[in-house]
Inverse folding.
């Protein structure tokens, strides 16, 4: 299964873990300000909202495209390739 980039609404772009240093490295590409981060092993989860259900990737643009697509985290690269991750916008 592959992602349908033309119909994607970024359902997977929430609560993304970033390796330590990635947020700083691409800080000039942040679209939504990071309010705080939570450590997660060798990574951090960046929060752009105090309500986790409203949190989204700080690099997610209003057009649902990734502002660091060429350098996106590995978890983002794998999404769409793993059948267990459901998304109504994926091709069968």
């Amino acid at each position: 299964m592959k992602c349908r980039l033309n119909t994607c609404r970024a359902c997977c772009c929430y609560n993304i873990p970033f390796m330590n240093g990635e947020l700083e490295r691409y800080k000039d590409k942040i679209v939504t300000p990071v309010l705080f981060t939570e450590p997660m092993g060798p990574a951090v989860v960046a929060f752009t909202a105090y309500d986790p259900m409203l949190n989204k990737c700080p690099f997610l643009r209003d057009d649902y495209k990734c502002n660091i697509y060429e350098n996106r985290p590995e978890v983002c690269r794998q999404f769409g390739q793993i059948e267990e991750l459901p998304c109504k916008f994926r091709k069968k």
Observations:
- The beta strands are 17-19, 36-40, 43-47.
